[in-house]
Amino acid sequence: xxxxxxxxxxxxxxxxxxxxxxxxxxxxxxxxxxxxxxxxxxxxxxxxxxxxxxxxxxxxxxxxxxxxxxxxxxxxxxxxxxxxxxxxxxxxxxxxxxxxxxxxxxxxxxxxxxxxxxxxxxxxxxxxxxxxxxxxxxxxxxxxxxxxxxxxxxxxxxxxxxxxxxxxxxxxxxxxxxxxxxxxxxxxxxxxxxxxxxxxxx
Length: 202
What we know:
It contains five helices and eleven strands. The chain has 202 residues and is α+β, with helices and mostly antiparallel strands. Strands 4, 5, 6, 7, 8, 9, 10 and 11 form an eight-stranded mixed beta sheet that branches. Strands 1-2-3 form a three-stranded antiparallel beta sheet, with no helix packed on it.
């Protein structure tokens, strides 16, 4: 097993920072490794706390009288200089409950309200995003969205199109568009399962 001996913070940004890890690998050779983290101090990094506190929240919600549409966002991302389909998502603010964060983020990004489903904790617990390069983890919440879509709550830095997609459109998106991986897996349930939330054991 590798051994981390020293951690150095290399940047000082508000939402994401780069850290340098020094140590040894599993056979004792020197190791230099770099990771990004959402936390603002080394003491709060998961490699220090050993706790998986969610940095963000992902919202999987259904829409419409028949609950036959899924709420997506088509968002411009600088990392790929292009648009990608995702679930509405966002960061959990310090001291904020992740479910409250999800309800807030859905409202801000889409203008929609969320009737939250109380799912088993195993379906909500934080999962790691891209663990080879970051310690970021996100919890997932589920529910039924209602209201009228609106961009009024979006920030100036966000370029987001609200998408209410039925199964036919989701199939097209999966075939033809860029899709975030954590969203793509859930959309496969949406396409194939009569009840997309059946796996939640409601």
